[in-house]
Amino acid sequence: IRSVLQTPELATSIEGEATRENTSRPISLGAATNNASWTHSTGTPTYRVTHPALRTTPQLAWSADIGDGDSRRYRITADPVVSDGRVFTLDAGAQVVATSTSGQTLWTRDLTPTSDRQGQGSGGGLAVEGDTLYVSVGYGVLAAVDVATGGLRWTQDLDASGSGTPTVFGDLVYLTAGDDTAWAVEKASGRVAWQTGGSTSINNVLGAPAPSVTNELALFAYGSGEVQAVFRRGGLDRWSATVVGKRPGRALSSISDVTSAPVISGDRVFVGNQSGRLAALSLGSGKRIWTARNGAVGPVWPAGGSVFVISDLNEVLRLDASDGTRIWGVPLPNFVKDKPRRQSEVYAHHGPVVAGGLVWVASGDGVLRSFDPTDGTLAGVVEIPGGATTAPVVAGGTLYVVSRKGQLLAFR
User: What is the pLDDT of residue 245?
Assistant: First the structure.
């Protein structure tokens, strides 16, 4: 019964949506640009990077060890960030590593607090601006680290898990802690500027989404499914909205956490959960523009009048950005085991990233896949030794991803 209930076809039909035929639709992505950096989990503090350049058939150029990989109890949750010829990573514990873009380890820094033991915390996130790397770790600490030496500049105790991903904008660092408290911290000193928060939930996924920040607003997402926009300098509320839904037949749909960090595109915000809902909201008011019955396991990628997403049903989708309708969808590998009684684990898929004219997905089954954005045709596959555990990032014509074994992999 479980295997039947968890098929994407039934999960879709239960909610009243017929399985649609894929269609081919032209798309204009604009000219690819050779971006030098990728400073935040989504590329920048506000928007996605605009069509980064990447070869259509990249090959593994090098690999470098970053520390502890995934295990039964601990997970790597931090996507790598790239700046000024350095790639920064965080392992499944609290070790930060700076690696040159040619693969040499430059320095390492263990951010385990002196009052704790190694192995007592997991998860975290990274953001870099100028000469400082900002790191959140599961031990409940936000730290500022010198990008050149790894020297510690300051730390701030978060009074809760620090597995959320930070965002740096202006003179503040923004972060959602594990207790659904939103923080704004002075980037120069680590002093608290203000705090706010949304409705709390015990059903949180490890690793809170990175806030998205504009000149005026900071957008936070919480475990309850609430999305909150506040004035970024003082933390006063501007608007709030909720993204909630259920996916009958799937146990994961009971988790209300927002798993797709808010992504701003023009005057819209795209945000989703893993229980079958993706919404487009007005940036200025929070008014709902449309809701699609497709969840999102990671931040979406708006491009060319479309929205690309990895759904909660393990499909890579292209949706119409104007109304959320499906243009095409391609199933990705789902259960690790084929036999119904052993279907207790699914493959994780990370992305998508639109680069070099293709849609890229890095997967836990050990494959980097690229798709034609017009119709979803599989364009190519590249082996990922050890399988992916982070979303891919692209900078300087190179795609970086971290493997489940704790290796930083560079594809050119």
Answer: 75
Contacts of residue 151, defined as CB under 8 A and 6 or more positions apart, other chains included, come to: 145
Q: What is the DSSP letter of 38?
A: B
**Token couple for 158:** 């978060």
Q: CA dist 27 to 10, 319, 325, 375, Å?
A: 30, 12, 15, 10
Q: What is the pLDDT of residues 74-133, one digit of tens each?
A: 999 999 999 999 999 999 999 999 999 999 999 999 999 988 877 778 889 999 999 999
Residue 54's nearest CA partner among 320, 375, 382 is: 382
Domain of 212, CATH number, reads 2.130.10.10
| Six token digits for residue 189 | 């000193």
Residue bearing tokens 């033991």: 117
CA 168, CA 135: separation in Å to the nearest integer?
Answer: 11
| Residue whose entry in the numeric block shows the structure tokens 């150029």 | 61
| Cα–Cα distance for residue pair 35/49, rounded to 1 Å | 8
Domain span at residue 145?
A: 2-411
Count of domains in the chain? Answer: 1
Cβ-based burial of 195 (10 A; exposed 0-12, middle 13-18, buried ≥19): middle
Dihedrals φ, ψ of 308, to 5°?
Answer: -100, 140
The residue written with tokens 């951010």 in the block is 111
The answer to whether 132 and 188 have CB atoms below 8 angstroms apart is no
Q: Which two tokens stand for residue 36?
A: 């030098």
Phi, psi of 340 (to 5 degrees): -55, -40
Altogether, the residues listed in the chain come to a count of 412
For 159-206, strand residue ranges (E) read: 167-169, 172-176, 181-186, 192-197
Q: Is the CB of residue 246 less than 8 Å from the CB of residue 231?
A: no
- What's the sign of the alpha-carbon dihedral 68, 35, 174, 271? negative
Q: Is the C-alpha dihedral spanning 187, 193, 198, 204 positive or negative?
A: positive
- Give 335-384 pLDDT, tens digit per residue: 776 666 555 678 999 999 999 999 999 999 999 999 999 999 999 999 99
Residue 152, phi then psi, degrees to nearest 5: -85, 125
Best CA proximity match to 391, nearest among 33, 37, 43: 43
CA–CA separation, 57 vs 360, rounded Å?
Answer: 11
